[in-house]
Amino acid sequence: MSELHATRKLFLDAVEGLSDDQWNFKAAPDRWSAAEVAEHIALSEDLIFSLVTQKIMQSPAEPDKREKVKGRDETILQMLVDRSHKAQAPEQLRPTHRWSSRKELVDHFKESRDKTIAYVDHTQDALRDHFFDHPAFGTMDGYQWILLISGHSNRHVLQINEVKADPNFPK
Q1: In Å, what is the CA distance from 143 to each residue of 16, 27, 123?
Q2: pLDDT tens figures, 39-93
Q3: DSSP string covering 130-164
Q4: Going by C-beta distance under 8 Å and a sequence separation of 6 or more, which residues neighbour residue 7?
Q5: C or N terminus of the chain, fewer CB within 10 Å?
Q6: Domain ranges, ordered by start, for the chain
C-alpha cells in the first residue's frame, strides 16, 4: 500500500505545474515527452491491474509455487528503477495521445490508481497463490504484479524527471 501511495504522489508531483511547452517537450525526436511518459504510466496501470484481476487471480491457485518467487519483492522494485536498462514498450502501451487534455490523463491515472489501492485494501484474494510469467522477471505472484504497477510508475516518473533535467527543457 505504501508503494502505491508513494508512487501516486511522485507521479502527481512530477507532472504538476508543467506548462504546455514543458508537458510536450521532447529532448530528441526518438524520446518521449513528459506527456507521453505520463500516458504510458496511465495505460500500464490499467493493463497490469486488468491482468492481475481478470487473468492472474482467475487462474487456479498454486501455493506450491510460492517458494519459487520468495524473496523477489525487493528485487523487482530495485530492477524497475534501474534506468540504465532500457526496454521497448509493447504496442498497446505506446503513447498515441489518447486523452484530449492533461487534466483528463491525470484524472484517469488518479482514478485508476485509486481503484488499484482499493482493490489491495479490500481484497480477500490470495495474491501469493496465483502466478503469471513476466517477460523480464519470470514467474511472479499476484502480489508481485501489484508491486510491478508501483515500481513501473516509479521507473517512469524518473524518466519524466530526466526530461525535466534536460538542458533544453523550457523554463
Answers
A1: 30, 36, 11
A2: 999 999 999 999 999 999 999 999 999 999 999 999 999 999 999 888 888 899 9
A3: -EEEETTTEEEEHHHHHHHHHHHHHHHHHHHHHHH
A4: 150, 151, 153, 154, 157
A5: C
A6: 2-15+38-85+100-165
